[in-house]
Amino acid sequence: MARGRTATVMTTRVGDDDAGVRPDRLVVEEPLEIRLDDHVVATTMRTPGHDYELAVGFLLTEGLLAGAPVRTVRYCATGSASETAFNVVTVSTGGVAPPPTARLQSTTSSCGLCGTASIDALLARLAPLPGPAVPVDVAVLAGVAESVRAGQELFEATGSIHAAAAFDPSSGAVTLVREDIGRHNAVDKVVGRLLLDEGLPASGMGLFVSGRASFEMVQKAWAAGFGLVAAVSGPSSLAVDTARVAGIALVGFLRGTTANVYAPEPAVVSRATG
User: Fold this and answer.
1) Which helix (H) or strand (E) segment is 189 a member of?
2) 121: nearest Cα among 37, 28, 25, 246
3) Comparing C-alpha atoms, which of 87, 59, 91, 94 is closest to residue 74?
4) DSSP H or E run through 190
5) For the segment 83-131, what is each residue's pLDDT rounded down to a tens digit?
6) What is the DSSP letter of 197?
7) Rounded distance between C-alpha atoms, residue 99 and residue 65, angstroms
8) CA 85 to CA 76: how far, in whole Å?
């Protein structure tokens, strides 16, 4: 089985002067089974690539590591990785993490593990971030969006993939970009990379997402310690409520030099002058 992140299929274009049969590059979508200390936790539909980061990030943002350090990450655990087409990743804590409860259904690339947590449940394992909230500079965020877009290799090739990025809200410097067919997977890849690099909690850092700001996106940002979430599209009401409780600055509808600031309340906003 190919391990590429894109696949070429033949398509028929209709409706213009350039109509006809032609090859088209599409993003690959395959299942990834995630295991914690040899316990099956979940299966998520993802774009291959940065699979170790995805598995580690998922376990961290879902609270399954419970503070246990990651000792090893590897493909499969029961045989050859090629036998499972590199679609099984095992994260080991040496048995330090509590035994997980397996998810009964697959995680989809569109919505992730919707409804698996509430704000009260998050407060049971996560403390509100220490203030003050990260100030929002719309001009800086506009530059972040441009930088992330320039780094989206798979979006350039296929036009059908999400991105997440870690950035410095003061300078706008983008430090890490990850792409995946699932919005939640892209975030988990960013979080997993930071965890493996001992970069968590991401205090004072911002998380950019190319789609909407759902409850799950804010939940994952909170678990990783991000002080700001900026999304190209709008948030849900539960995402806003969660961000306000967590002490996270939440920005939606980031389009050019305009945006809506939903949290904290009241918003702290600065604009470029001159």
Assistant:
1) helix 183-196
2) 246
3) 91
4) helix 183-196
5) 666 889 999 999 999 998 766 455 544 444 444 347 888 898 999 998 7
6) T
7) 9
8) 9
